[in-house]
Amino acid sequence: MRIYHGIKAFEKIQYPVVTSGTFDGVHQGHQKIIKKLQHLATDKQGETVIITFWPHPKYVLNPGSSMKLLTTFEEKAELLRSLGIDHLIRIPFTREFSQKTSGEFVEEILVKKIGTKQLVIGYDHRFGKNREGSFEYLQTNASRYGFEVKEISRKDVDHIAVSSTKIREYILNHRIHLANKLLGRFYGISGLVVKGQQLGRKIGFPTANLEITEDYKLIPSDGAYAVLASVDGNQYSGMMNIGVKPTVGSASRTIEVHIFNLDRNLYNERLNVQVVKQLRPEMKFNNLEELTDQLHQDRNEAEEILHKHL
What we know:
Elements: E1 2-5, E2 16-20, H1 28-43, E3 47-54, H2 57-61, H3 73-82, E4 87-92, H4 95-98, H5 102-114, E5 118-122, H6 135-145, E6 148-152, H7 154-158, H8 164-172, H9 176-183, E7 187-194, H10 199-202, E8 208-211, E9 223-231, E10 234-243, E11 254-259, E12 270-281, H11 288-306
Parallel strand pairs: 1-4, 2-3, 2-5, 3-4, 5-6
Antiparallel strand pairs: 7-8, 7-12, 8-11, 9-10, 9-12, 10-11
Helix pairs in contact: 8-9
């Protein structure tokens, strides 16, 4: 997959089949659109093109927004690559760009810059200034623009009942397993391993402390989780704790991953974590002995859950 940082970098191709959107999470609803895109491209021996906007338009139009994202741009790009997309165009979303009318967007970007042959959109997709553009608008003007418009109908996607908003709610409310169903995969977080208090090593559960540098990335609710962790291309079972560690009185929220059957220094390495299932909410114990006993129970439960995924 080729990635273009800005529309000017895009080099025209023979038969572009295009869709656009934020694609946060690349969830099953998005995947439905992608499959349609690929089917049309294959039928015409064309190539798939996704236009996405960065930063997320909500951050530009509502600067005070507290919304967190399911994917960083890098995560989103990797997911689209794994699904077989040919071209990804990253358009910087600015206030100036937000003032483009639907007609300007179509003529300047879809027609002149890309040379779109077929355009695929979801049934409720709107675009252009004040979200004035619609499927009906495109269908009415398609012949003038020189491309065909294909709509993913309400009937085709309603049975999935999926949205990025619903997935965020599940992740924040101790229901990661339901979020995973809507995503069609395990929710992922990624960060650098930094030095922590090293308390885990003292009680037999050494942890890799993750530093997530993207403050807009959605972090699951506090608690213990069964996870799959990837290091240097190898995948391991493990468990993760998110929270303030009330038993030892931590001053800040941390993300700590205990990787089973891996005992080596991971400082300054990038750790990719797939969050499979929450084991329990965060709990306060009377002493370290009680905490250690619970961690052994957590590990047994996590190993049972993860056994079928490795």
